[in-house]
């Protein structure tokens, strides 16, 4: 530009401030031939929007250098101090203001609420000489954010009438309705919704009054959808005079949530102008319900795809165990120039785990290091992937690289990896370290620990860990724990004790429990208990050939040919087919 004025400079500075590129904003500010008060306010707000004492101090220094100040200047600094937790300095500046307005007071209220000082915020609000809808909305929003919903409702009813019937009051009501809905208090949300006059009036005068707007209806609908009450949500939707895209998306997502894809797709077709969120909801719904063909059909028809669209479709393939389809779509995603994020990569790591493809897993790991900063979920997925693919050393490397923070899932993944590789000593040693570091184990931790004991034949250690789980950590044993305990005892030939464990279980044994016992009976040639276990398995899974085959092999090993033949005939009578074996060479 050959000719620039203050507005030109301020526009450019505002752009940099908005992007928090404070160095470039300051450079332009210093180069300005003539600055006005807007220029000063912009640069001061830029410094206060950046986190860190250095920026705040520089912002205050510039504020002191201002040739003249207006209310915006003072409010900017007060708000900056408040948002950075420096309420003492914010209040000191507020009290020093030559002339205050409602915005100044709102900045202080917001500061108190951001710092969790609910009582101070309410007290300050009540002492304000005047407050408008913005003040009330700021207080209500802050109270909702701090979980003080009933206090917010009390304030709304006490001071809402002071607003003179202005339409802006509805914003405070909408905020509180949404707050109640997010926490599952649907009745309270509906009570507030009913307090707002209906918006189906007419005339210019009616339009200015305090009435429901489309956000009111949407907030109430979202409350019902979150609570799973799609009937009430649909009733509101049908009563709405004016709907926006959010109204349609809310109801569509509600039907997707309860897996009613017929109604969801019907609404989608009726929707005047679906946005990318609408398309993503439909794709997600069909994928979650196992209909990958329809999910892919809608995915391909999308006029504009975003990263969430790709992630949703890839995750759908993973959920339905179509791992090759997920890999093909991931390749297409890269070819079309869409950059994957950590959610994409986490799904693709799960693909590698499902395919047991170590080569692909290492490629994805390399991609992770180049594209994203690995977080706990990604590292946990990598540990599981390497363990399942047989590379326990790589799993251990990923685990050890997490020096600063390992959550319980990380520990579980590594202990489980050691256990599945038969490295019981390493698994138990890692479990001891976990306890020394005061990381509370979960029921999944103990499943891995008991499996490690089973692989190593550590019967007494298994008993100790099972007892410790209940007495030391208060974890109720699940069927998986009993299956592991039966496996531990059965492998060592203690079949009678294993049967006693099954008989004293607080719930019915599942196929894993009976399968562990039957396998142990097969190893130790205990025909009597094998028949009991096989009968139980046949009742649980009549179409499975496993119990018949194990029983047949046991009789054959003992040369009890008549009994073996009887098992084979029984299979034929019940039309049970033996699954063909196959080898997998990588």
Q: What is the number of helical segments per DSSP (H or I, 4+ residues)?
A: 35
Shape: elongated
Q: CA-to-CA gap between the ends?
A: 64 Å
What's the number of extended β-strand segments?
Answer: 0
CATH architecture of one domain: Alpha Horseshoe
Helix/sheet category? mainly alpha
Query: In CATH, what is the homologous superfamily of one domain?
Result: Tetratricopeptide repeat domain
Oligomeric category: single chain
What share of residues are in beta strands?
under 5%
The description of the largest β-sheet is: none
CATH class of one domain: Mainly Alpha
Into which percent range does the helicity of residues fall? over 70%
Protein architecture, described:
- This is Structure-specific endonuclease subunit SLX1.
- It comes from Vigna unguiculata (Cowpea).
- Belongs to the PPR family. PCMP-E subfamily.
- One of its GO terms (molecular function) is RNA binding.
- Keywords: Endonuclease, Hydrolase, Nuclease, Repeat.
- The structure is a single chain.
- This protein is mainly α and 586 residues long.
- The chain has a domain at 477-578: Tetratricopeptide repeat domain (Serine Threonine Protein Phosphatase 5, Tetratricopeptide repeat).
- Helices cover 72% and strands 0% of the residues.
- The chain is built from 35 helices and no strands.
- The chain has helices at residues 6-18, 22-31, 37-49, 53-65, 71-83, 87-96, 102-114, 118-127, 133-145, 149-159, 169-182, 186-195, 203-208, 214-226, 230-239, 245-257, 261-270, 276-288, 292-301, 307-319, 323-335, 342-355, 358-371, 376-388, 392-401, 408-420, 424-436, 443-456, 459-471, 479-491, 495-503, 511-524, 527-540, 546-557, 561-573.
- Helix 24 (376-388) packs antiparallel against helix 25.
- The model is unreliable at 203-208 (pLDDT under 50).
């Amino acid at each position: 530009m050959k000719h620039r004025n203050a507005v030109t400079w301020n526009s450019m500075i505002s752009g940099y401030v908005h992007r928090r590129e404070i160095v470039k904003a300051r450079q332009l500010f210093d180069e300005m031939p003539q600055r006005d008060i807007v220029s000063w306010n912009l640069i001061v707000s830029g410094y206060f929007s950046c986190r860190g004492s250095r920026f705040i101090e520089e912002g205050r220094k510039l504020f002191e250098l201002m040739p003249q100040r207006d209310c915006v200047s003072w409010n900017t600094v007060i708000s900056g101090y408040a948002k950075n937790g420096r309420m003492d300095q914010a209040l000191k500046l507020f009290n020093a203001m030559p002339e205050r307005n409602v915005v100044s007071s709102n900045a202080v209220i917001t500061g108190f609420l951001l710092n969790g000082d609910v009582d101070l915020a309410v007290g300050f609000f009540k002492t304000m000489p005047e407050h408008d809808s913005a003040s009330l909305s700021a207080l209500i929003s802050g109270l909702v954010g701090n979980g003080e919903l009933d206090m917010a409702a009390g304030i709304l009813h006490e001071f809402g009438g002071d607003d003179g019937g202005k339409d802006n009051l509805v914003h405070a009501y909408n905020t509180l309705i949404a707050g109640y809905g997010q926490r599952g208090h649907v009745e309270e949300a509906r009570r507030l919704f009913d307090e707002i006059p209906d918006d189906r009036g007419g005339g210019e005068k009616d339009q200015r009054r305090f009435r429901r707007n489309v956000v009111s209806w949407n907030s109430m609908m979202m409350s019902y959808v979150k609570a799973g009450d799609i009937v009430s949500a649909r009733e509101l939707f049908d009563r709405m005079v004016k709907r926006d895209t959010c109204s349609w998306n809310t109801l569509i997502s509600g039907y997707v949530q309860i897996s009613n894809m017929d109604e969801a797709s019907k609404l989608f077709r009726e929707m005047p102008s679906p946005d990318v969120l609408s398309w993503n909801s439909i794709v997600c719904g069909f994928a979650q319900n196992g209909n990958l063909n329809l999910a892919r059909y809608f995915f391909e028809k999308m006029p504009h795809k975003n990263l969430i669209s790709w992630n949703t479709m890839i995750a759908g393939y993973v959920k339905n165990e179509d791992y090759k389809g997920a890999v093909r779509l991931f390749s297409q995603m890269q070819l079309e120039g869409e950059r994957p994020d950590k959610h994409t990569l986490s799904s693709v790591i799960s693909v590698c785990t499902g395919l047991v493809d170590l080569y692909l897993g290492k490629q994805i790991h390399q991609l992770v290091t180049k594209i994203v900063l690995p977080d706990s979920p990604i590292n946990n997925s990598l540990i599981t992937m390497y363990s399942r693919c047989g590379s326990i050393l790589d799993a251990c490397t990923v685990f050890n690289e997490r020096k600063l923070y390992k959550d319980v899932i990380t520990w579980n993944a590594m202990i489980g990896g050691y256990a599945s590789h038969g490295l019981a000593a390493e698994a138990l040693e890692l479990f001891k370290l976990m306890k020394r570091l005061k990381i509370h184990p979960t029921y999944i931790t103990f499943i891995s620990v008991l499996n490690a004991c089973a692989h190593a034949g550590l019967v007494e250690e298994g008993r100790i860990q099972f007892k410790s789980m209940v007495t030391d950590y208060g974890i109720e044993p699940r069927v998986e724990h009993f299956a592991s305990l039966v496996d531990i005892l059965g492998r060592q030939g203690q079949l009678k004790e294993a049967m006693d464990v099954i008989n004293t279980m607080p719930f019915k044994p599942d196929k894993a429990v009976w399968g562990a016992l039957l396998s142990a009976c097969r190893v130790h040639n205990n025909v009597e208990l094998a028949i009991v276990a096989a009968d139980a398995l046949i009742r649980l899974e009549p179409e499975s050939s496993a119990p018949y085959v194990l029983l047949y092999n046991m009789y054959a090993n003992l040369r009890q040919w008549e009994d073996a033949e009887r098992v084979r005939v029984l299979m034929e009578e019940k039309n049970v087919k033996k699954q063909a074996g196959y080898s997998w060479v990588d």
